[in-house]
Amino acid sequence: MADTTADAFNSHRKVKPILQDMEQSEIQKISSAITVVLPDLPLAVLSAVVDTLKTLGAKTTDDLQYITEGDLLPVLKPIQARRLVVSWVQNNPGMCPSPVSVCSSPSPASATTSTSSPGDSFTFQPNWVDKFQIPWQKLPEELLQNLKRQKRPSPRLRREMIRIVVSEIMKVCNNPSKHNTTEIGKKMVAEYPKSLQDVIEGDVIGPGYHSLVKQLQARVENVKRPNRPKIKKRKTTSDGSDTEEIPAEQKASVQDTYGCVNWEPKFLPLSETVESQQEKKENMKRMFEDMNYNKDDVKKLVQSTYYTQRKDINKRTSIKQLCQEWPFLFKEAGMAAHFQELTGVSIMECFFANVDKKCQRLLKFFQNVAAPKHKQVLNALIKCQSERGQLSGSPEDIIQMVLLLLAFFGEEEENLFHYVDQTCLAQDVQKKKLPASPCIIVCGSSCFTAVTFMLAVDQEVVNNHITSFIPAFCLLFGSYYCFNIHYPVELRSTLEFLQSPKTCFRCFFSINPERGTKVQGKKKKKLLPVNPRVLTLIADLADYEWT
Predict the structure, then answer these.
(1) Quick check: helix, strand or coil at residue 329?
(2) What pTM, to 2 d.p., does this model score?
(3) What pLDDT does 305 receive?
(4) Residue 421 CB neighbour total at 10 angstroms
(5) For 154, which DSSP code?
(6) Which of 1, 180, 385, 534 is the most exposed place for a label (fewest CB within 10 A)?
(7) Most distant pair of Cα atoms in the chain: their distance
(8) Are 30 and 58 contacting, i.e. CB atoms less than 8 angstroms apart?
(9) Roughly how many angstroms between the first and final C-alpha of the chain, as a whole number?
(10) pLDDT at 306 over 60
């Protein structure tokens, strides 16, 4: 009898760990069923949800179909609870990821449970993007021929490609994120860069896949729309790679340093001292007052005192005081030298080089494509032609280009230009009527006919005698970077479009950081690193070039 009791006890001791292992395995499956739907859930909250489910009696993933939203509200927000409940009901009986290949054809068994709705055929698979294969074989033959021959597909074929790819995506995931579509867009561009990469005249537009990702995401949103609940989605945690995801207290510094390679030098040049810096600073002030200088001397002095200039600017010295202490910073030679130290770019040389390549084609696009479609562009074009008359040349082309860009993006001209009487002096300008952001004061009724321009920053006239539009525009653009000024939202698209050579028509100034944005932020307003409106114009230009 004693032996029998001992055997039973030993048997129980052996079975107990097995039961514990089985229980632990089910808990892990339940945890997986939660994290698949809410991947960003903190561990502490995840643990609390699992404990709640155990308390309610849920022992396996099969039990999850009986959980209600109210059961989860003590530990989750309402939207989180709804997402879990809806997913568990739709994907009953199990939530455990399946090792099935993402791109393989559905088995007969799975085909019987699928419907025409993308959301209904969805199977949870962690890291599904890594396994996802682009369905090239399902694309139309004409499109495949274009891709294989390294030709750019027409807009019609490109849209068809997007529809097919998104259809395959939705079979795997009914709510793909922007990160998911970005990774897929990267794969597509990597496979056929000559056909799909955002390139014009050999210049790659940013990383080369932004416009494709934008189309993929737009298609995903269109497909999801009928089944999407009318509730505000919780903001997910970001990897912090973009300006808009950085905490508010850090945003300003990120936007200030955007595009800069030497925003605040740590050390004085070895040949310089505090005293020598001050001496050179005073020397420049005397040269400016006496109007006795040449550009080469100014350039050397600005470069050698760059360290002290940045210290003054970055401690938020007022523009008025900077004008008094560093007057050459607001003149063409001085700002060009400072801008080159700050960004590594020669602002005037880069601008002229890109104008020669891009300006005429952009003007033709506005005249032949944009004007017939957009009334505001047509009106602006007629006004430009009337004011320009028979004037021809690079300055007139640039003026017209800027004015048409403003019209195309629906941005107000008065945010960039302030018109005064032809004989107006700096002291006569009504500062309160100036925009807060940098602007060009036009002495006359039209940029085409004006012979004098002024530059205003922070409603202060900082340069009262500029004899040509091109240096005035370069000084205006340089001011945003030299003096830590964010692009105003009212001019965002125009300024971003002109910004960087590596984003093609964002091409007139060589500012091309991989992350962030120069645009001032608004509370609760997410800003993308590449403006969607700019991407749309770039795509339209690319299509125009290939037709």
Answers:
(1) helix
(2) 0.57
(3) 96
(4) 10
(5) P
(6) 1
(7) 119
(8) yes
(9) 95
(10) yes
Match 């039973």 to its residue by tokens.
Answer: 8
pLDDT tier at 95, thresholds 50, 70, 90: very low
Both tokens assigned to 260: 């800069």
DSSP 38-55: -TT--HHHHHHHHHHHHH
**Is residue 490 a contact partner of residue 415, using CB atoms and an 8 Å limit?**
yes
CB 519 within 8 A of CB 492: yes
- Among 85, 104, 105, which Cα is nearest to 95's? 85
Can you tell me whether residue 144 is helix, strand or coil?
A: helix
- Which residues is 466 bridged to in the sheet? 453
Residue whose C-alpha is closest to residue 134's, from 159, 174, 168, 179:
168
Placement of tokens 């395995």 in the chain: 25
Distance of alpha carbon 541 from alpha carbon 547, whole angstroms:
10
Instruction: Map residue 106 onto helix, strand or coil.
Output: coil
pLDDT band of 94, cuts 50, 70, 90: very low
Dist. CA 29–CA 211, nearest whole Å: 38
Query: What token pair was written down for 64?
Result: 């999850």
The DSSP annotation for 62-106 comes to GGGGG--HHHHTTTS-HHHHHHHHHHHHHT-S--SPP---TTSPP
Q: How does DSSP assign 385-432, residue by residue? A: HHHHTT--SHHHHHHHHHHHHHHHHT--GGGTEEEE-TT--GGGS-GG
Give residue-wise pLDDT tens across range 188-197.
Answer: 988 998 888 8
What is the model's pLDDT at position 547? 47
The set of residues, in sequence order, having a beta carbon less than 8 Å from that of 264 and lying 6+ positions away, is 310, 311, 314
How far is 505 from 490, CA to CA, in rounded Å?
A: 19
